[in-house]
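User: Just a sanity check before I run the rest of the batch. Below are the structure tokens for the first item. I only need the designed sequence back.
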């Protein structure tokens, strides 16, 4: 079977930059799945993507499907012929459907009987007709939330399609996809190189496109060039470029021929908090800011042009002219906002709605101020500073700077609070109230910040649940992220807080605004559910998490200790046998409908094995009691692991469900006592092998 490299390139209008990588990777994945379903072998798929194209190159693709034999089983022989040996209607209908006579059928003999059988030789199809269909199917499965139509066509895609190339080696695969017929022509850069090129062979891609068309279709190559050149450009001006992964990805998706350049802005703008300057450089203009060795912003920025200009100074000047008005706006807003103390804006929050049923942002401010104060007392934070931070928490939302540059909320509050002479802990909390903002983000650095951050998040979670808008698919209020943030703050700081208390206190701030009666129970379930995803991400197996969740510990720090203890216990040699024993005991106790004694009666112990087990149990119960009191779950489970041998011996030699009711109840009481010790940590019976 012959093989050749196959190329497909879809030329489009400018694709959404934030979706480019996702589209390209999905195209490769879906096309690979289509080839596998069609039984077409190959040696790997490489994807390419630029603002105006998605492309795949399939290495050593087979030129046709392999031949195969399809077996079609018919009716049982006993049902295929009547008493005289003539074919029945069932047999004739089956044979007719396969295009044969009953006499041509083979016989299939098995242990369960004999059936008619037809083996059909199916020759493999050549790829000429297959590839357009497979590619079309793959494109139809791309993650495109809002496909569009263009011109007078009925086809839909994320952007209008202009060209289609499908080459198998040097052979053009004819076909139409998304309303465009395949050809050998690809488009070059809009302003440089050849505007179009005709490919003679799939192997000419992407080298000819880059050399003659001035388009670097290799996404990873473009990205690496941008990173390396940006680092070099920053070093040339004595600094380091801030190359955020998301921004680098977006810039890579915006250009076909990256040219990295360095520009400047006036030193006077550096008196504005760097966060505002960086926000406008990165968010609005897609520039990379430059910092010195001390982390101070330099009056430089790096940008990526999509053209290799003969006069780069003009390109640099143009970008400097574009960014200057935005920096001047930031300077003006900063100077204007500082003319009023931050606290003066507190009454203005009454004019901004947090949520229609939950009131204004001023209402939310009052609630989180009270709740943060309560949390502060529990974790040893300065209550006065915490409550002051609560009052100021949302005031920067009413400033000109935050109104214009929304992502600076919090950080501008911090700067304005410092200008107003507020305590540093208060100022810092205004910024850190939103931490952690995403998975793996930094946590608040002080108890005051932590109390405010938890209060803000708990107020939102309880409020939205309290009006019956718990997240299902979408999560517009980011409640999952907020819940995980609260858990992380508690666990990673070792705060001995109980979710039940936090939820109750948050609910109390709402008075009668909340309409959902089961809000406390639902929020608790929701937050406990966040543990599963979090600990799975940390590498803990689902059964370990389920073992702890079965006991519903509501103190996050306690939950964390239990998970780690169970994880350690599972690594012990005795764990598997004790998990099985716990499951067995649980099943036995579930079927017993009598009342168990409150303690084990030593006078009823008859067998040596049960006497030995009773002695060890008494010893271990005494040993683990102080360990449980100190929440030393790992130490307790390590002690209890020593029960394995006497428990196994007990089950091997003692009839638990004895005929004598007293003996049976006493033995069950001992097993119940053993299980209760483990349940002080988790339900280890759910652990898998």
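Assistant: Here's the designed sequence for the first item:
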């Amino acid at each position: 079977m012959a093989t050749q490299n196959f190329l497909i390139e879809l030329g489009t209008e400018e694709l959404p930059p934030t979706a480019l990588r996702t589209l390209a990777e999905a195209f490769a994945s879906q096309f690979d799945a289509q080839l596998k379903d069609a039984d077409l072998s190959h040696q790997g798929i490489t994807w390419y993507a630029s603002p105006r194209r998605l492309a795949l190159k399939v290495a050593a693709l087979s030129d046709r499907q392999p031949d195969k034999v399809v077996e079609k089983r018919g009716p049982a022989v006993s049902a295929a012929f009547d008493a005289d040996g003539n074919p029945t209607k069932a047999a004739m209908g089956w044979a007719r459907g396969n295009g044969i006579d009953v006499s041509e059928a083979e016989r299939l003999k098995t242990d369960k009987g004999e059936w008619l059988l037809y083996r059909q030789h199916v020759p493999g199809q050549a790829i000429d007709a297959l590839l357009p269909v497979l590619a079309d199917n793959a494109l139809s499965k791309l993650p495109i939330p809002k496909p569009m139509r263009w011109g007078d066509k009925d086809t839909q895609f994320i952007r209008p399609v202009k060209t289609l190339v499908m080459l198998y080696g040097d052979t053009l695969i004819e076909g139409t996809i998304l309303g465009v017929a395949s050809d050998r022509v690809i488009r070059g850069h809009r302003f440089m190189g050849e505007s179009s090129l005709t490919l003679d062979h799939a192997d000419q891609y992407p080298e000819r496109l880059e050399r003659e068309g001035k388009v670097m279709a290799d996404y990873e190559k473009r990205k690496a060039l941008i990173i390396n050149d940006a680092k070099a450009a920053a070093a040339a001006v004595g600094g380091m470029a801030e190359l955020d992964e998301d921004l680098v990805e977006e810039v890579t998706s915006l250009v076909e021929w990256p040219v990295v350049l360095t520009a400047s802005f006036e030193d006077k703008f550096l008196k504005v908090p760097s966060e505002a300057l960086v926000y406008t450089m990165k968010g609005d203009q897609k520039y990379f800011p430059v910092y010195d060795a001390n982390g101070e912003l330099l009056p430089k920025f790096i940008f990526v042009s999509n053209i290799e200009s003969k006069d780069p100074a003009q390109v640099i000047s143009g970008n400097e002219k574009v960014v200057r008005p935005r920096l001047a706006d930031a300077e003006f807003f900063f100077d204007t906002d500082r003319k009023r103390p931050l606290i003066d804006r507190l009454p203005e929050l009454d004019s901004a709605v947090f949520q229609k049923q939950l009131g204004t942002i001023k209402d939310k401010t009052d609630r989180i101020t009270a709740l943060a104060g309560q949390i502060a007392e529990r974790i040893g934070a300065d209550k006065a500073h915490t409550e002051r931070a609560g009052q100021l928490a949302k005031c920067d939302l009413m400033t000109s700077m935050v109104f214009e540059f929304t992502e600076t909320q919090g950080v501008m509050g911090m700067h304005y609070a410092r200008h107003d002479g507020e305590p540093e802990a208060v100022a810092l909390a205004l910024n850190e109230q939103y931490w952690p903002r995403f998975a793996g983000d930094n946590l608040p650095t002080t108890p005051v910040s932590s109390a405010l951050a938890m209060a803000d998040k708990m107020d939102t979670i309880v409020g939205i649940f309290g009006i019956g808008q718990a997240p299902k698919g979408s999560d517009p209020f980011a409640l999952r992220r907020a819940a995980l943030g609260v858990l992380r703050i508690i666990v990673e700081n070792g705060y001995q807080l109980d979710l039940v208390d936090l939820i109750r206190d948050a609910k109390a701030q709402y008075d009668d605004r909340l309409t959902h009666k089961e809000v406390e129970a639902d929020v608790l379930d929701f937050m406990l559910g966040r543990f599963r995803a979090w600990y799975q991400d940390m590498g803990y197996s689902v059964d370990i998490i389920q073992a702890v969740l079965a006991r519903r510990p509501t103190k996050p720090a306690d939950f964390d200790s239990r998970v780690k203890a169970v994880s350690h216990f599972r690594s012990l040699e005795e764990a598997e046998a004790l998990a099985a024993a716990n499951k067995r005991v649980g099943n036995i106790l579930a079927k017993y409908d009598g009342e168990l004694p409150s303690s084990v009666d030593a006078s009823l112990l008859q067998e040596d094995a049960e006497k030995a087990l009773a002695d060890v149990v008494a010893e271990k119960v005494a040993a683990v009691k102080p360990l449980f009191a100190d929440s030393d779950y790992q130490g307790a489970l390590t002690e209890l692991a020593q029960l394995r041998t006497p428990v196994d011996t007990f089950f091997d030699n003692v009839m638990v469900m004895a005929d004598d009711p007293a003996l049976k109840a006493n033995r069950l009481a001992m097993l119940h006592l053993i299980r209760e010790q483990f349940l002080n940590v988790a339900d280890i019976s759910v652990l898998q092998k």
